[in-house]
Amino acid sequence: ETLDKGLEKTNTNFLNKLGKAVAGKSKVDDEVLDNLEEILVSSDVGVATTIKIIDRIEERVARDKYLGTEELNTILREEIAGLMSETNFGDATDFSVPAKKPYVIMVVGVNGVGKTTTIGKLAYQFKKQGLNVVLGAGDTFRAAAIDQLQIWADRVDVPIVKQQMGSDPASVAFDTVQSAVKMDADVVIIDTAGRLHNKVNLMNELTKVKRVMQKVIDDAPDEVLLVLDGSTGQNAFEQAKQFTAATEVTSLAVTKLDGTAKGGVVIGISDQFQIPVKYIGVGEGIEDLQVFNKIEFVDSFFR
Ligand code: GDP
């Protein structure tokens, strides 16, 4: 229900465009394919993934000799769902975390993408299940980042570990994990700096944060969640490229899918980086985070 509401704009735009692409045509020909290519690119599916999808449809046209435009929806949906299955994601159905105590999530991403908000919404969901959550204010470069996370910690009513602005993010991560162990916490969510770095700095910083956490828990973090703003299209691809080069990203959260006609970014990014999209943000409110479900998402595109 909420997903439908959240992604309304995405649906309407994609379907409208698709309708225009086949207007007055009864079969899928080169012109329809050209139009479709343009729609996919303008929906931020990305060029590489768009070409993949078009190729697959061309193959089907070649094989079946004829493909009616009424069938295009179904075929397209099958191909996109198939592509997403290859990434093997969308399995989770709720906000549960593995029973490993504490389960450590390190959150990375550029300023402004919705990192703090996503951490707050996640903390809320985990707490709602009765889990003990601890937050770590590892973005020490901006006072506002620490303050914002504190606001979420108060709102959700979970403890937060922080230091002064300008302190070493790795030191905050160390403190957080150590406190979490002491408090017997179930889940730890650690924020990291969101400055736009050069690649080497970013890599050094994230590596250091991880290394220091591992002094407390050998195999921490259990998850490196990259937050991307779904409304920024190519920037989101670029950020995914930078962060995956700098550290081993294990999951993605794509935010702001409520306000954009460009939900295709989810399809393209998951295909190109082969990393599961775990959560999607569909608003600014505390409840506006959803566990990503592949089938629902693809359906919402074609409804
Ligand atoms: P950060 O700098 O990455 O920590 O970003 P914030 O969490 O502070 O979010 C930046 C802005 O984006 C804030 O105004 C948030 O309310 C807003 N925001 C975050 N997630 C979403 C979302 O899913 N949808 C919408 N519409 N706004 C969001």
UniProtKB/TrEMBL annotation:
InterPro entries: AAA+_ATPase, P-loop_NTPase, Signal_recog_particl_SRP54_hlx, SR_rcpt_FtsY, SRP/SRP_N, SRP54_GTPase_dom, SRP54_N_sf. It catalyses: GTP + H2O = GDP + phosphate + H(+). Keywords: Cell membrane, Cytoplasm, GTP-binding, Hydrolase, Membrane, Nucleotide-binding, Receptor. It comes from the Bacteria. It is an enzyme of class 3 (hydrolase). Pfam families: SRP54 (PF00448), SRP54_N (PF02881). It is found in: Cell membrane; Cytoplasm. GTP binds at residues 109-116, 191-195, 255-258. Part of the signal recognition particle protein translocation system, which is composed of SRP and FtsY. Involved in targeting and insertion of nascent membrane proteins into the cytoplasmic membrane. Acts as a receptor for the complex formed by the signal recognition particle (SRP) and the ribosome-nascent chain (RNC). This is Signal recognition particle receptor FtsY. It comes from Leeuwenhoekiella marinoflava DSM 3653.
